[in-house]
Amino acid sequence: MKVVVQRVSKASVTIDGRKVADIGSGLLVLLGIINEDTQEDIKWLSNKVANLRVFGDENGVMNKSLIDMNGDAIVVSQFTLHALTKKGNRPSYIKASKPDIAIPMYEAFVKQLEIDLGKNVQTGEFGADMKVELLNDGPVTIIIDSKNKE
Known about the structure:
By secondary structure, the protein is an alpha/beta fold. The chain is built from 3 helices and 8 strands. Strand 1 and strand 2 form a beta hairpin.
């Protein structure tokens, strides 16, 4: 399981002209899932996202987490995070899970993040053509892979 976490001043997701998610200060989390991902990956990655200290404290040092800031989050499924680009110029998405595996894992990740944050988490819609708009704050963008916990 892999995420791209972006600290945002604001972010939203629009599908077919309808805004389905909209937050102010918080995190936009792009989530990619592979078949080997487990409940352990969900718990570890959700905890990491919720407690990632990327928000400034009173001294301007990135020392506060989303929990500390009582910030909001949007989670968007993004199978392209597992693109293989070694050969040629057309990415292969063979590692990305198919919907029958990915949807329950995606939903479980969102539920776990809601538990870890103690609040609702907004989402896009799995498999939809989404327009994601964000104002990256910093910019701060971090990639975390549950298969690389070192």
